[in-house]
């Protein structure tokens, strides 16, 4: 499980680790929720363990010792069995499990199963009505546990907004999840527990190193939220709902979106600037950033520089593609493998 928390900065965005681990420790996995809010379930646990095994080449995790493509297979089989049992109830852990298990099926499952998980995940997510669940927990009379649940749900809601990019981004599709009408409660330091109390306040490169460093978890998450808000606007522009709209006749609008991305890039905190980034989550962030920059430039490859603010879209897009490869090699030099940062490029 530690492999998952250490290396997977994609799927873990839809989880609140503290609430998950509390329920993992305290809940009876055979009990019925009866509509009560939970942050853990058997399906979610097995999905998480299956995905965590993607980040190891230890043959002890293979179902077939000589076949690395069977790593995590035992947990995946159990997750598939439990998915059938839990699907009758629309619950937060079930939807979280689907979002996480997508990354396993996308690597080792069938195309049919991957698409089915994707569709089911976001259909079920919309039925959760997280905004209503949060509203009930932020009243003046709310207790400490209710406020903590509200913060967790706020994080999870924005996490799903970010996570959907891994589905729609590579296919240049519009986002189905719009910007959440949910307050970013995790930003409220007065209402939050001290960050040092959380297991993910610190990060170390398990099993490569045991030297801890600040994870900058909240700061990077906030930057991801800002980035995906711009991505939503980009895809609304490139894939308009009105049939008479032709974005390719409006390079000036594409240039405005590109400049919004560049403005965001240069207003990021120092530790998240490309030259200073060494955390896997920060390197992952820059891979996503460059892919989104390319998404607004590539459709205008044939546009002359004088029509695009003096910028050559094709050459600039090629520059960002080269920067992605440089980021991947930086990751490999630091941590000896390429699994994490290659994820968005698949």
From TrEMBL:
Top-level taxon in the UniProt lineage: Eukaryota
Protein name per Swiss-Prot or TrEMBL: Transcription factor domain-containing protein
């Amino acid at each position: 499980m530690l492999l998952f928390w250490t290396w997977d900065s994609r799927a873990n965005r839809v989880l609140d680790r503290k609430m998950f681990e509390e329920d993992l420790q305290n809940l009876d996995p055979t009990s019925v929720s009866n509509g009560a809010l939970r942050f853990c379930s058997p399906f979610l646990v097995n999905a998480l363990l299956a995905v965590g095994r993607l980040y190891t080449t230890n043959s002890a995790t293979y179902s077939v010792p000589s076949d690395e493509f069977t790593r995590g297979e035992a947990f995946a089989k159990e997750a598939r069995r439990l998915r059938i049992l839990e699907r009758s109830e629309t619950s937060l852990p079930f939807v979280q499990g689907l979002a996480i298990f997508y990354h396993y099926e996308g690597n080792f499952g069938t195309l049919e199963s991957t698409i089915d998980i994707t569709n089911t995940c976001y259909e079920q997510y919309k039925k959760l009505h997280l905004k209503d669940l949060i509203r009930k927990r932020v009243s003046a009379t709310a207790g400490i546990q209710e406020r903590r649940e509200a913060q967790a749900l706020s994080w999870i809601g924005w996490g799903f907004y970010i996570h959907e990019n891994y589905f729609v981004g590579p296919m240049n599709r519009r986002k189905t999840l719009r910007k959440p009408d949910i307050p970013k409660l995790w930003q409220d330091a007065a209402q939050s527990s001290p960050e040092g109390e959380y297991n993910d306040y610190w990060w170390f490169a398990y099993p490569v190193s045991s030297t801890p460093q600040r994870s900058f978890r909240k700061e990077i998450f906030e930057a991801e939220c800002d980035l995906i808000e711009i991505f939503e606007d980009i895809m609304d522009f490139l894939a308009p709902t009105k049939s008479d709209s032709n974005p390719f006749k409006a390079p000036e609008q594409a240039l405005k979106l590109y400049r919004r991305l560049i403005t965001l890039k240069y207003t990021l905190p120092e530790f998240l600037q490309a030259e200073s980034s060494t955390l896997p989550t920060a390197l992952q962030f820059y891979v996503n950033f460059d892919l989104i920059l390319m998404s607004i430039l590539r459709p205008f490859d044939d546009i002359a520089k004088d029509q695009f603010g003096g910028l050559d879209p094709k050459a600039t897009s090629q520059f960002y593609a080269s920067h992605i490869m440089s980021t991947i090699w930086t990751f490999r030099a630091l941590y000896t493998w390429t699994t994490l940062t290659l994820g968005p490029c698949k």
